[in-house]
Write a structure and sequence with these properties.
The protein is an alpha+beta fold. The chain has 2 domains: 84 residues, Glutaredoxin (3-Layer(aba) Sandwich), CATH 3.40.30.10; 109 residues, Glutathione S-transferase Yfyf (Class Pi), Chain A, domain 2 (Up-down Bundle). Helices cover 55% and strands 8% of the residues. The chain contains 10 helices and 4 strands; from the N terminus they run βαβαββαααααααα. It has a 4-stranded mixed β-sheet with strand order 2-1-3-4. α1 links the parallel β1 and β2. α1 runs parallel beside α3 and α1 runs antiparallel to α10. It is globular, with a radius of gyration of 18 Å. It starts with 5 loop residues before the first strand and ends in a 5-residue tail after the last helix.
Length: 209
């Protein structure tokens, strides 16, 4: 039996899907462990032993072998950087572009994903409609700024598909129907190519089990 060194515990959340796409893009073998959030599996004793905060994703890395304790990581962006350490040329691109790749990865984390997540958590508060709209508008405005990134190179982080693209594709997918695509031709080209990429197709479906 082939040993698969990585377990990915997750659900159909943006953070989990980004990690799945990174695994697929890097070509690292992993096993999906679906955590059913609706059934409260993220609050089970078994899962809480891995991550006391009860959040997904979580990876268990046994790649160093049975003589070492497995590495458990519970923060999605730390997981992405761990995978990038394992496959830097793939997920971060050439050294010439690496600083740019880091910059654009963090642009999507702080300027797009962060306000989008804040808007999501406000969705059930009737009095928060105005704040939610402000946050969503801010996220979409920031996505629009990425038109420049897509105009400068084939991929958002440089000379190859990597962490910046992984961070971007899932959140752009969230706002796909609301974006003014007629004003974003380069970003549209990038997005259509990214969504057709085999690693993205597989990663998007990773938790459809």
């Amino acid at each position: 039996m082939t040993h698969v060194p990585y377990d990915l515990y997750g659900a159909r959340t943006g953070n989990s899907i980004r990690v799945a796409i990174a695994f697929e893009e890097a070509g690292l073998p992993y096993t999906v462990r679906l955590v059913d959030l609706r059934q409260g599996e993220h609050q089970s004793a078994e899962f809480m032993a891995l991550n006391p905060s009860g959040k997904v994703p979580v990876i268990v890395d046994r790649s160093r072998g049975p003589e070492h304790a497995p590495l458990v990581l519970t923060q999605s962006n730390a997981i992405l950087y761990h995978l990038a350490d394992l496959a830097p040329e793939i997920l971060l691109g050439s050294r010439e572009w690496r600083a740019r790749a880091h910059e654009r990865f963090f642009f999507f984390l702080t300027d797009v994903i962060l306000p989008s997540h804040a808007a999501f958590w406000l969705r059930t508060e009737a009095t928060a409609n105005v704040a939610r709209k402000i946050l969503n508008d801010r996220a979409m405005h920031a996505i629009g700024l990425a038109e420049r990134f897509a105009s400068e190179s084939a991929f958002l982080g440089g000379d190859r598909f990597g962490l910046a693209d992984i961070a971007a594709v899932t959140i752009v997918n969230t706002y796909e129907r609301e974006l003014p695509w007629n004003t974003l031709p380069a970003l549209r080209r990038w997005y259509e190519a990214a969504m057709a990429r085999p690693s993205v197709v597989r990663g998007m479906r990773a938790f459809d089990v």
